[in-house]
Amino acid sequence: MSVETVVVTDPAAVASPTEWALARSQVHAAGREAAAPVVELPLADTDGLTLAEPLTTLTDLPAFPCSSVDGWAVRGAPPWRVVGRALAGSVPVPLTEDGTTVEIATGAMVPVGADGVLRVEESTRTGDGRITGVLRPAPEWRAPGEEARAGEQLLPAGTPVDPGVVGLAASCGYDVLRVRRAPRAALLVFGDELLTTGRPGDGRVRDALGPAVPAWLRRYGCTVDPSDVIGPVADTLSAHVTALRAALDRADLVCTTGGTMHGPVDHLHPALTELGAEYVVNTVAVRPGFPMLLARVVGADGRVRFVAGLPGNPQSAIVALVSLVAPLLAGLQGRPMPVLPQATLAEPIRGRGNYTHLALVRVDPAQGTAHPVRHVGSAMLRGLAQADGFAVIPPGTQGEPGERVSVVPLPLLFGERL
C-alpha cells in the first residue's frame, strides 16, 4: 500500500484535519513501508521483538512417541516381566515378546512394540516380581505430530515474540529466529516554560512528558536510551532544527512535545520545512489531541525516519501516542494494525461534533463495561493515571449507556488488561 504524503511547504497553512481512523491506517501503512530491517538473533535475544517470517515446525511435535506418565510400557497381556527401563533422553530397546514391560519415565520415548502404558500408581507387583494392572482405554502417551506436523505454520509473520513464543520455537528445534529489530526512539521536549525538577510556580510548569513518554514508547516496543531524551529545547527555530537533525541521525522515530500549532513560538512546522520533511498526517479530527502530526524525513543514507509531533498538553500528547505512534510502531515492527477491543458503556459520554472523541475510561474486565473517569482535561493527568484506555465515540454521535464501543487500550508493562 502506497502512502500519500504532503511536502511541508507552507508552515503557516492550517491543514484540514484527517479523520481519526483514516489517520491511523495511513501511519500504519507508512510504518510498514519503512519496516525495520530483518535480523537473525539467538532465541534468548528475541523477547519483545517481532517475527519477520512465519514460525513453522522443523519436526513433528512431539518428534517421537513419548510417555505422558510415569509407569510401565507393556506388550501383550498381564502379568508382565520387567526387561528394562526407558528414561528420558534415550532410545529404549524394543519390546519383542508378549508379556514383557519396561519401566518408563514421563517424557521418555515409548519403545517400539509397546501396546500401552500403565500408570505406576495403578500397577502392582506379583510375588515373583512381575507387573500387573489394567490399562486405561485412552493411550497414556503422546503420538508423533499430535501437537503439530513438520512444516506446519504455527505463528504468522508479525507475531510479537514473548516467552511463550520463545519456548515454542525452542521446542521446534530453533536456535535462532529471524525478527525485526526494535525501533529506536528519541524525545525532544519543547517549551521554555518547563521545569525538569522541583515544584511548579511563578509561571513555570513541571515537564510531565519528558519522564512519561519514553516509558510509553518502551511499552510499544521501542528502545529509548536516556541520552535520547532531550529538553527543554530552546524556543527558537535554529535550536529546533539542530535538535531534530541530531535526533534523526540516531533514531527511527523522534517524538516532540509542543509546538504543533502555528503560534509565535511554535517552531515545529518551520523546522520540518528546513529538514525537507513530508507530512503523513497533519492534524487529526480527534478531541482531545487535535494538533498532532506525523512526518517522515529521508536521511542522507536513504533510510526513512519519522517525526511524531505530540501536543504540549499532557493528556493530548498521550492521545497522539495512542492514535498515531502506536499504529506507526506496529507497522515499523511488521505487526498488523492493532485490533481494538470493545466494551459496553456503563454511563453516557458526550460526543464532540465532527470530531472523534477519545474519552478516558476504566474497564471492568469481569463485566466488560467501560466507566468514564474524572479529571480529564487536556492538561490533566489525574484521570489518565486511573484509566485503562480511551473509549472511541465516533463523529456525530453520543455515547449512550449499554452501547458497545471500541476502546484504545493503554499499554501496560505486563500486557494489556483489555
Task: Report on the architecture of this protein.
With 418 residues, the chain is of the alpha/beta class. Helices cover 19% and strands 29% of the residues. It has helices at residues 20-33, 163-172, 209-219, 237-250, 268-274, 314-332, 382-385, and strands at 6-7, 18-19, 38-42, 50-51, 55-56, 66-67, 71-75, 81-86, 100-104, 116-119, 123-125, 131-133, 141-142, 153-155, 176-180, 185-190, 194-195, 205-206, 229-233, 253-257, 278-282, 284-287, 293-298, 304-310, 342-345, 356-364, 369-372, 389-393, 404-409. It has a seven-stranded mixed β-sheet, with helices on both faces. Strands 25-27-26-28-29 form a five-stranded mixed beta barrel. Strands 8-9-7-10 form a four-stranded mixed β-sheet, with no helix packed on it. The longest helix has 19 residues, at 314-332. The model is unreliable at 7-13 and 414-418 (pLDDT under 50). InterPro entries: MoaB/Mog-like_dom_sf (IPR036425), MoaB/Mog_dom (IPR001453), MoeA-like (IPR038987), MoeA_C_domain_IV (IPR005111), MoeA_C_domain_IV_sf (IPR036688), MoeA_linker/N (IPR005110), MoeA_linker/N_sf (IPR036135). Catalyzes the insertion of molybdate into adenylated molybdopterin with the concomitant release of AMP. Keywords: Magnesium, Metal-binding, Molybdenum, Molybdenum cofactor biosynthesis, Transferase.
List its traits:
Molybdopterin biosynthesis moeA protein, domain 3; Molybdenum Cofactor Biosythetic Enzyme, Chain A; alpha/beta; 418 residues; EC 2.10.1.1; 7 helices; Molybdopterin biosynthesis moea protein, domain 2; single chain
